[in-house]
Structures are given as structure tokens and as C-alpha cells.
Amino acid sequence: MSAMDFDLPGLLQARRGLGYELHARYLNPQLPRMLHAIGFDQVYDRAEGAYLYDRDGNRYADFLAGFGVFAAGRNHPVIRKALHDVLDAGLADWVQFDCGLLPGLLAEKLLARAPGLDRAYFCNSGTEAVEAALKFARYATGRRRILYCDHAFHGLTVGSLSVNGSAEFRTGFDPLLPDGRIPLGDLDALERELRAGDVAALIVEPVQGKGVHIAPPGFLAAARELLHSHGALLICDEVQTGFGRTGRFFAYQHDDAEPDIVTVAKALSGGYVPVGAALAKGWIFEKVYSSMDRVLVHDSTFGSGAAAMAAGLATLAVMDDEKLAENAARTGEALQGALQEMVDRYELLAEVRGRGLMIGIEFGKPKSLKLRTRWNMLQAARRGLFAQMVVAALFRRHRILTQVAGDHMEVIKLLPPLIIGDAEVKMFREAFVEVMEDASRGSGLMWDFGRTLVTQALRTSQRG
Ligand SMILES: Cc1ncc(COP(=O)(O)O)c(C=O)c1O
After folding, report:
1. C-alpha–C-alpha distance, residues 211 and 103, integer Å
2. SS3 label, residue 464
3. Is 212 in the pocket of ligand 1 (CB under 6 A)?
4. Mapped to the 3 state alphabet, what secondary structure does 380-419 carry?
5. Over the chain, what is the mean pLDDT?
6. 3-state DSSP assignment of residue 133
7. What distance in angstroms lies between residue 258's CA and the mean position of ligand 1's atoms?
8. pLDDT tens for residues 81-90?
9. How far is 127 from 120, CA to CA, in rounded Å?
10. What is d(CA 123, CA 145) in angstroms, rounded to the nearest whole number?
11. Could you tell me if the CB of 274 is within 6 A of ligand 1?
12. Which of 158, 161, 266 to mutate to test the pocket of ligand 1 (most atoms within 8 A of CB)?
């Protein structure tokens, strides 16, 4: 076969449905195992807007949005056209020794939305944006230690892992970078750490992805003051919360905080081309890139690629045109309000929290004996199984895709595309009521599935 015969549509058709088998054989084998265990082993054929479609044409509401990638929905026509256009333009991409136009245009547009920040560094993922932020902060301050918060998640490369607030990700990868952990919102703990005089920065998610914990009002602004008074910087990680997710372009803008460095990724991709960026104050860039000798001191071969830049520019245009941040604020309030009303109605429901369209639903120990027995059975096997049971029921019975908000927590997270409206709020509310009614009866298929999860959890833990 010559390369001219290469036929992607033909290949997809010929090997249709074999993705799970190939993953089991050649990629991370735990992924297909896990998806099978929780009943998520679906084959999707196509996607549009806030919906996925399987090969029988069934529709699934996507309240996960690729972990927050699809702010503008899937396969958006404007972003798609921009990508066709950039390919058709036949640009001289990644010359490396030139200054292309597209990165300049995207930096200009991004920085216009981040008053106080002056320069952008483009890379290829969220964790790379965080790595850049950590290096910039350390070099600019001449200090080594980075502070982070309990439950923090900033990516899984070694620098980002050093500021991860959960043992399950860190264990076995020591030694990591010198660090210090504080509870989210604890200014006293921050001050105690700063007194050592060796802190370069605090990195913080304004709303944490794991567990959907929100920085208390005023914390970011006060932390920045405290950090600056000790010669340290504030890094806001907006990889998940940026691009209107919480109802403002950046989540730190709810708090009138002015960070020194901001990281973005996910939604900037338009759902097509991996990309990340670290935005920072001018003086930080001037220190890091202080002379021509240091021009490549922090860089990446694939940074600033034309397709990624085009996707970013198109995404920003769609965000403005469709007022996605405003929609996230309005629809998020409606969705949270609908869920909030249920907290008093269902004893298994402990709390609903979030900002815009980043919402956490936390479950808690019920009072009645019958439910408590079942709850305890799940807890004894593994914390988080009840939330997994709800996620599975939403998926299997209502075709709504959600996720548990982190390991060992009874929280589910809603992270839909920012284009959803009243119809999706109604759909989710009705589905969630049905699931909670069923769970509250303490019998039936749902708890049977819970027992299956317990068996699997025990088997997994026995295997170590
Ligand atoms: C706040 C935050 N920072 C960083 C990352 C890492 O991004 P990536 O998976 O693109 O490396 C994530 C990913 O979920 C994130 O939520």
C-alpha cells in the first residue's frame, strides 16, 4: 500500500468498535477495566454541542465536557471552520526562528481579558502551563519553595505533582520539589509558611477541581497581599476554572484578586488542539528572559502551533458572540438553585456548592437506620462508592455523563459545556430526582449495583 492509499474514514469503518480491545492490549489496561466496572464502556460515534451519540443513535448529555475542555460545546462550527482555514492556509508553522502572527494575536486577546498581566508563554497542556508558572516564580523570586492547598490538583508531571494536595497521586513518586501545604483559605497557615523566607509562590485553584471546594471570599486578594509582603507571588491556576466556567472570564475575578501568574489550558483548545498558557506580569518575563543568551531558557518545540492558536482565537470569538460566561452564570445559578432545593428533601444529600457551571453535589451519612446500614456497607469497602453509584445511575438510566469529583470522596461534579440552557437544567433536575428517590428507598437496582461496586473494590484492594 502506498501512502497515497491511506484512508482514515476507511480505517475507522474497518476497525469500528475495537477501541476497548486495543486499549486493553496496547494502552493503559486499567482504563477499559474501570469503564467496564462502572458501566461506562460505551462506543460513541459522534458528538455535537452538549451531546454525545452512540452507534445506535442514543443521545447522552455531556456534563463532563472532556474534564472541562468543551466550553463552547463539541464540534463547534466556527472553531471547526477556523481549523479548516488554518490547514488550507498552508502556513509556515514551527519555523522556530521566526515570529508568527497567530501567537501574537492570541496573546493580545488573552491578555486583554487579564488586566495587570502583560505577557504570555504558550505550551501544550495544563500541566505544562503549571510547570512554566513554577519555574518562572522560582527564578523571578530566587526562592525554591512553592506552597499549595489541601486537595489541590495542578497536573501530573513532576513539578505539578509536587504541588498536588492528594496522597493518592503523590505516593511512590518521591522525592518531589520542596513544598508546603496549607488548607484552602487559611491565611494564618500561609503566614506561618511565609515566615521561613524561602517561599517563591502560592499556587491555588480559585475553585478546586477535586471536590469542588471554593476559596472563601476575600482569600485570594488577602493571600496576594500577604505573599507580596513576604516577597512571594500568587499563581492562580485557571486551567479548569478559566474561560467563563464560573461565570466570569477568570474565577479569580470574583475576588478582585490580581495574581502575578495565571495558568490556562483546557477550553482554550476549542475542544480540538491541545494548548496551554502561562500569563504573567512583565517583570517576571523580563527576569526569566533577561538576555539574548536566555532566549530559549524555557521553551517547548510544539508551543504556539498555528492550529492551537487558531482554535484559541476562534474559541474567544465564540465566547464573546455567544456570551458563554454570562450563560454559565445564569444557567449555573438555575442548576444550583434546582439542586439546592433538594438538600432538605433527601437525607443522603449533604451539600450543593459551586460557581457558575462548576458544581459539586456532596452526599453524606443518612439518619434512618435502613439507609445508614447500606451507606456503611459502601463506606466500609471504599469511600466514594455511593457517589459512583449515583454517577452510574445517571449514566445508565438517564444517559447523563458526570464524574465523581475525586478519589475517596462522596462528591459528584457537574462540568457541562457552557452552552447548556433551561432544557438541560430541567433534564438534569428530573433525572437527579429519580435517582435520589430510588436511592432513598434503600432497595432496588441501584443498591444492587452498589454491592457489585463493593465486590470490585474489595477485589481491587486485595490485589493491592
Ligand atoms: C486546575 C488544573 N490544573 C492543571 C491541570 C492539568 O492539566 P492537563 O491535564 O492538561 O495537564 C488540570 C487538569 O485537570 C486542572 O484541573
Report:
1. 34
2. coil
3. no
4. HHCCCHHHHHHHHHHHHHHCEECEECCCCCCEEEECCCCC
5. 95
6. helix
7. 21
8. 999 999 999 9
9. 16
10. 23
11. no
12. 266
Q: What number of other Cβ atoms are within 10 A of residue 437's Cβ?
A: 11
**Is the C-beta atom of 52 inside 6 A of ligand 1?**
no
**Is pLDDT above 90 for 367?**
yes
Check pocket membership of 136 for ligand 1, CB cut-off 6 A: no
The pLDDT confidence band at residue 456, using thresholds 50, 70 and 90, is: confident
> 287-340, pLDDT tens digit by residue?
999 999 999 999 999 999 999 999 999 999 999 999 999 999 999 999 999 999
Distance in Å, CA 122 to ligand 1 centroid: 15
What is the three-class DSSP state of 51? strand
CA-to-CA distance for 275 and 312, rounded, in angstroms? 8
CA of 211 to the centre of ligand 1 (A): 14
Residue with grid cell 453535589, as numbered in its chain: 361
Which residue's C-alpha cell is 449514566?
A: 395
Residues 404/362, Cβ–Cβ less than 8 Å: no
Contact 275, 313 (CB under 8 A): no
- Give me 321's grid cell: 458572540
The response to whether residue 126 sits with its C-beta less than 6 Å from ligand 1 reads: yes
C-beta separation of 300 from 124 below 8 A: yes
Coil, helix or strand at residue 135 = helix
**In b/e form, how buried is each residue of 224-243, taking b as 16+ CB within 10 angstroms?**
bebbeebebbbbbbbbbbbb
Q: Which whole number is the average pLDDT over 373-394?
A: 93
Rounded Cα distance, 34 and 404, in Å: 13
Q: Can you say whether the dihedral through the CA atoms of 233, 205, 382, 162 is positive or negative?
A: negative
pLDDT, tens digit (0-9, with 9 covering 90-100), for 68-112: 999 999 999 999 999 999 999 999 999 999 999 999 999 999 999
Question: pLDDT (tens digit, 9 = 90+) per residue, 46-60?
Answer: 999 999 999 899 999
Give the pLDDT confidence score for residue 424 in this predicted structure.
98
Strands 44-48 and 51-54: antiparallel
Q: Which of 432, 242, 415 is nearest to 349 (CA)?
A: 432
Which are the contacts of 103, defined by CB distance < 8 A and separation ≥ 6? 120, 122, 304, 309
User: What is the CA(235)–ligand 1 centre distance, in A?
Assistant: 14
Q: How many CA atoms lie within 13 A of 14 on its CB side?
A: 6
* pLDDT tens digits for range 223-263: 999 999 999 999 999 999 999 999 999 999 999 899 999 99
C-alpha grid cell, residue 297: 531558557
